[in-house]
Every structure is written in C-alpha cells, then in structure tokens.
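Journal club prep — side note

Before the paper discussion, L.F. wants everyone to see what a predicted structure for a comparable chain looks like in token form. Sequence:
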Amino acid sequence: MESVSTTATARRTGALAASGHPLVRPPAAAHLSDEQVAELGRELDAIRDEVIAERGASDAAYIRRVIKVQRGLEIAGRAALLAGRNKTAWVTGTTLLSFAKILENMEIGHNVLHGQWDWMRDPDIHSTTWEWDFVTPARSWQHTHNDLHHRWTNVIGKDKDVGYNLLRMSPDQPWRPFNLGNPLWNAILAPVFEWGIAIYDLELVDYREGTKSKAAIVRDLKAMGRKALRQFTKDYAATPVVAMVTGSGKQALWGTLAANAVRNVWAHAVIFCGHFPDGADTFTEEMVDGETRGDWYVRQMIGSANISGSRFMHLMTGNLSHQIEHHLFPDLPSNRYIEVAPKIRDICRRYGLPYNSGPLFKQVGSSWAKVFKYALPDKAAPAS
C-alpha cells in the first residue's frame, strides 16, 4: 500500500516554511515556542501516518456499504413518490430521498472529492471521476474548497469561505450597509445552499477584480449550466414525469423539491457549525506569513469546531461533526476521524490549545449569533 499521497498533501498544505514561525502567532497559540509547534506537528504527522498504514479492506468495505445504502434509499424514495398522491407514500418517499441526498452529499460526495478513497484505485470512487448530487460541478468545488479553503482556512482576504462573499462573519471583515441584511441573507441561503455554493464557486468577485479571465468564467458558467440541467432533469423532470402515470406528478415534484431543501438546510447547518461558532478563530495574513507545517496544523485546530453526538449523527454529517480532525487530515477516510479525535483532544490539552466541541443546537445557535452580531457595525473604541 502506498504511503502519503504527494498530490493530496501538496494540495492541502501548499508552500510552508521548513522552520521558524509566522510574523505573528494567533493569540490562542501565542504561548507556544517554535520547538513546541514543531513537536506538535510531528505528533500529528505520526497520527496521520498511522492511519495511512492501517487503512485497508475494512475501510473500503465501509464506503462501498454506505454507497449501497445511499443508492437503495434513493431508489426507494423515488419509487414511493410515484404514489405520492397517498400522503403516507409522499412522506415516506420525501423522507427517504432526503436521507439519500444527505448521505450522498455529506459522507460520500464531499469525502470522495477530497481524495479520501483514491488509495483504493477504484475508478468509480475517485476524486477525479466522482460527480455529486449538487448543482455546483465537482471540479469547480474542488478548486474553491480543496485548493483554497483548506490551504487558507479562515484567513481573512485569502479564504473567501468566510461568509461566501455574502455574509460578514468576522470583525476583521469591513462592515458595509449591505451587512445589515446578514440574518435575512443567511435565512435565504440555507434552503438553497447548493445554489449559493454554485454561484460562489464561479468566483464572480475574482472576475470583477480582474484576477479571473473571461475565458475561465465562460468555461465555468457552461459547466454549471450543464450540471444544473442534469440536476433538473433527474429531480424535476424524470421523477415527476414517471409519476404522472399514477397521477402523482405534482406530488413527486414537491417531494423532490422538499428533499433538496432538507438536504440544503442540513448541509448549511453542518458547515456553519464547523466554521463559525464562538471560539472558531479567524486569522490575518500576518499570522500565515512564514507559517510552518506545525503552525498550519495549529491554525486548523483553533479555526475549526466539532459537533458532539451519536454515531448516526456523525454519519449524517459526513463526519464533518469532526471538523477539527477533517481540517487536520482532509484526505484521510472519514470513518477514521472518530478514532483519532481523542488523540487530537489530548494534544490540544497538552499544548494549551482550545478544542472546540459542543452539541448541534449549541453550535448552530452560536453560529447564528455571529450572523446577527456582525450584521451591525463595530462599536467605536472609547476615546483615550
């Protein structure tokens, strides 16, 4: 079995300094010396290497089993919607399809596209071939998410996932009158989250600022158009048209709309819980200038947050309930996060770093509190 994937590692970390320290260490890590950060990095590398060495048949069986269950749920859900005029059939079909879409998006699609299963060398479960049940094309998302977000996690001005060019989520982001709508924009975003991400992945701000070419934006628009047509055909044409045979076309249409909305609201909640609750730090560019691998690890730990809960909840979040572990090791199999989490918590304790974890309702509430808080301009500092 191969060792660390060079491509995945380069994509995750980018260019990091071999030694030294950034111009400014984040406040939560200011007490650490260069030697401590280097040792912390070695400990985390050892944890990663251990999982790499152990992964094998049981992990491959896990993801294949999840894919099989997901496809069964989707078939059963769409089949039930064919009889959607019956209320029980409609509720059953919509529920099953919602679960199927959540599983595909969170535990399968997101993680396959991170390259977590590339080591299996299965062309059907590979980051270069998978296309997920989401409006944004996989390749576009991989660029903004894998290449940019995971390299520049929570760095204001570098990681545009902080607010998705729509929301103000940090005091380091300049306030504009538009931000007064923060709560409204976020409430609208949640049920149409896949469309928000698709538009964000076009990088329209980059195009407007001249850092993305017209040819690139035209290419990405065409790719998004093709993907949107595919999604519309599958959800809002094929299933309702077949359901017309039983007189349930309208009910099937509403059922697929509802399932997509449920998946979008859930994905939105999970992503916000992992990045924006109280205690998840943001960073200035000074804090990453001269960053070593150990410093990069530290930034992932103090800039992310976990959700505590049951194994079923972890599964339905795509194990992004272990967002700290995912940001440390984005290309390790997601089913392994639960076993490395206690080791990461212990490292945080020993090095005096916060390990942000809490139940879903707490993390969701904390994230929404920030949405409201940063809708308003910052209070002026008192005169000296």
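L.F.'s comment for the group: The first strand starts at residue 306 and ends at 308. Keep this in mind when we get to the figures.
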